[in-house]
Amino acid sequence: MDKSKLEALIEARGKDFFSITSGEAPSIFDKGWWIGKLMDWCMRNEIFKVQLFRFVDVLPYLTTAESLSRHIEEYFAKQDLDIPAALKWGAKGAGLGGKITGKILGRTIRTNIESMAQQFIIGDNTKEALKVLTKLRKDNFAFTVDILGEATVSKAEAEQYQQSYLELLVALQKEEKRWKSLGDTESNLDWGHTPKLYISIKPSSLYSQTTPADFDNSINAICERFIPILRKSKKIGAFVRIDMEQCEYKDITLEVFRRLRSSPEFRDYPGLGIVLQSYLRDTDQDLEDLLGWAKDEGLPFSIRLVKGAYWDFETVTAKQHGWKMPVYTIKAETDAAFERQARKILENHDICHLACGSHNIRSISAVLEMAKALKVPESRYEFQVLYGMAEPVRKALVKVAKRVRLYCPYGELLPGMAYLVRRLLENTANESFLRQSFVENIDTEKLLEDPAKVLETLPEKTRATTVSEFRPSKDQDPGPFTNEPFVDFTRPDARSAFPEAIDQVRARLGRTYPLVIGGKEIKTEDTLASINPARPDEIVGIICQAGKQEIDSAIAAAKEAFLVWRNTSPQTRAQYLFRAADIGRKRIYNLAAWQVLEVGKQWDQAYADVGEAIDFFEYYGREMIRLGSE
Predict the structure, then answer these.
(1) Number of other CB atoms surrounding residue 154 within 10 Å
(2) Is residue 516 helix, strand or coil?
(3) Which of 130, 155, 264, 455 sits most deeply, having the most CB atoms within 10 A of its CB?
(4) Distances (CA, A) of 256 to 157, 278, 386, 458
(5) 405-423 tens-digit pLDDT
């Protein structure tokens, strides 16, 4: 279909959606409710929003009225903020030491914030969750259930998380008999083609030590705990979606999916899907690779395509560690990527089912019209939205597309707070589609603009580099100081570089290292063996020790060298440091490997130690130049 004609259909579809949702607003923005008033304050005051989300994050730990009052005072009363009356009164009560007032207001604030969490969470136990799910199905919505608390920190917690999913599947199986199939169908399947029972699970929750630095072991451990869940799901006919988490776990998650889906036990069971995030710059290639793999293996599968929920975390982490930004930094880039990737999946509907995860009316309309233009069967795509968000959009969707599934998390308040904060960030972000649509009432034409065309109107962006391009020479200005980036184990080359460097170093173990005095090697009879603490039988090296004679010789050599060094210009002195820094960068894995074997350092810590040495060279080289010019 002609692109301009398709674009006109998308805009027309979008306007129809807006007409259906006219006069309604998501409950989270209803100013008649406490949560609506709070969101309004957040959107008008960025500092207050930050303080509120910090407070919400620690709330589960504030188990006494005193600790609650103290935190209200610290987060709000000591800030020059325009804050809601309830928080203001609570802060004043805490500041005046009014224990009774503080307890009453503290209890009120806690209750209100807990009710805010319940806006997005279907319950804190299975019984409550099943009641909500039954009601949602009566309203013609399918569901996928996610158990909160994925940030496991021990083997016991990971095993409990696995058990929770097994118990959830049993509970869902019992309840399923009471549920009528959705859609006009005689089948026991929803809409005639998809299971009623549907769960989502974050793979890192099944292994508390998940890390890209230990790539293969992480995958093996996750798969080992995942198999019983998938085995049970296969037995009762449930669908399992492997959720995508932060970028750190992306490649692990993709490999877990491939291994499970292609394993002999599950090759004949298509009830396993994956999630891709459009805001990641790698997603186009990841999608291409997955589709190619699925065709080669002959394994149909499903992708839930979402924009991404960890943008703030990913950008802060990348800046902090000096890494290349893994996510798009302009909203239109993500929106354009979403439409591009959705089309790619729809074009491959013979092997891949699309679950469109978005509240953005433009994105939804684009998927609907692209699917229609490509003659994609309705059984090959559906729409998924988050429980508690965008109620007008989901009501319109169920009227137009019929096939709508709600992402329904449940669990206790403590693990639920991280999820709540992510949802609050999404709702109150300046570029949030829901905020722009239902709060700021941005013009419909603007909201329905083609994101690819929006990008064309923006000034050309300069590609941000997070690693200093400076390679010093006598004729160069070193430029501003920047820290050496940390190791990024999401990169395959970083993961392979460490074991390779360790193998190279291990081949050189056991050698004797002489003293170097005045540029000459000096061997002594007195030696000291350096032992690998992880392998006491492994001698890293034998080092010659200095006696009085060697120390005297070293002092004399230093005095002689000083006569030349004192007349060396600051610029030249600095170049020695810059050259050392450059050598350190080129040999960083090798130098870190020596630390791993000699003192038992973890890979990332050994790398950071060498990076710190490089920082010292770079910083003091610049200081030498600065001081020499004064």
Answers:
(1) 10
(2) strand
(3) 130
(4) 20, 20, 25, 39
(5) 999 998 876 666 666 666 6
